[in-house]
Amino acid sequence: MMYELLQKRRSYRKFTEQAVEQEKIDQLLHNALMSPSGKSINPWEMIVVTDKETQVKLAGCKPFGSAFVAEAPLSIVIIADTTKSDVWVEDCSIVAFNLQLSAEDMGLGSCWAQVRNRQSPTEGVSADQYVKELLNIPEHYAVECIMSIGYKGMERKPFNEDKLQFEKIHNNTF
Ligand SMILES: Cc1cc2nc3c(=O)[nH]c(=O)nc-3n(C[C@H](O)[C@H](O)[C@H](O)COP(=O)(O)O)c2cc1C
User: Is residue 78 a contact partner of residue 96, using CB atoms and an 8 Å limit?
Assistant: First the structure.
C-alpha cells in the first residue's frame, strides 16, 4: 500500500554486503523507466554501477554527504540530456523518488546523493564534472544525483507523522 511504503521509506546510508540480485535491479530499472516526464520527452538516462572500484571513486564526488555510495552494492546515477528538455531536473527527480519507493517495496534501502549544483573536493571542479569524467558521460549531459541502493544495514524508524507540517497546506488561497 502506498501509505505504508511512504511511512517506511527513510534514507539508508548503511548497507549489508549482500549484492542486489539482478532480478531486483531489472525490476528497479523497469519501474524507473515508467516515470512520467514533461511532454513525455524522457531526457533522463541511468548508469548502473555495481563495480566496487567505481563505487569508491563515485563516493568521492563531494567532500561530504556521499560517503555511503562507497558502501552500497548498487548505485544508479541519474543523468539527463539537458538539450532535450528544460524540465530535466523535475524529470530526474521523479525517477529518483520512483527508485526510492521501488527499492523500499522490494525490502531494499536507498539514499540520494545530490550531485547537481554541488562542488567536488577539488577547488573549481563541480561534482557534476567529476562524475561525468569518471563515467565518460558526454558534456551536454548533467548529473542530477546518485541513488545508492542495497540491503539495509541499519534500522530506521518509520516517518514521524507527529511532525507533519499541516500549516504548509493552504486552502483555496495562500
Ligand atoms: C533532493 C535531495 C537531495 C539529497 N541529497 C543528499 C545527499 O547529498 N546526501 C545525503 O546523505 N542525503 C541526501 N538526501 C537525503 C535527505 O537528507 C533525506 O531524505 C532527508 O533528511 C529526510 O530523511 P529520510 O529520507 O530518512 O526520511 C537528499 C534528499 C533529497 C530529496
Answer: yes
pTM of the entire structure? 0.98
| 114 CB within 6 A, ligand 1 | yes
How far, in Å, are 11, 27, 53 from residue 7 at the CA level?
A: 12, 22, 34
- The residue to which cell 546510508 is assigned: 13
Dist CA 133 CA 135 (whole Å) = 6
Ligand 1 atom closest to Cα of residue 100: 25
Report the separation in Å between the CA atom of 43 and the middle of ligand 1, taken as the mean of its atom positions. Answer: 23
| Structural domain total, the chain | 1
- CA–CA gap between residue 164 and residue 118 (Å, rounded): 29
Give the tens place of pLDDT for each residue, 84-111. 999 999 999 999 999 999 999 999 999 9
pLDDT for position 105: 98
By residue range, what is the domain housing residue 118? Answer: 8-151
Q: Which atom of ligand 1 is nearest to the CA of 65?
A: 9
Distance CA 84, CA 96 (A): 19
pLDDT range class, residue 23, cuts 50, 70, 90? very high
CATH number, domain of 100, equals: 3.40.109.10
In ligand 1, which atom is closest to the CA atom of 93?
1
In a domain, 13, yes or no: yes
